[in-house]
Amino acid sequence: MPPKHPATSPAMSPSIAKKTRKSLTLEVKLDIIHRNKRGKKTNSIACHYGLTPSTVYHFQVSRLY
């Protein structure tokens, strides 16, 4: 049975960069929570910090526990 992908597929290319992870300071995390408590929308908070809305939502959910 032949392989599904050739050995030189673009996924194995060294020119494709890995995603970098951002580390957020405690002040930023607290500001995200406070902005949410004041009624700001998740998308507007995410745009302000250059994050994805799912990251901002994570802080909203973790605040409840």
UniProtKB/TrEMBL annotation:
GO terms for molecular function: DNA binding. This is HTH psq-type domain-containing protein. Coiled coil: none annotated. Its main location: nucleus. Residues 18-58 form the HTH psq-type domain. It is found in: Nucleus. GO terms for cellular component: nucleus. Transmembrane segments: none annotated.
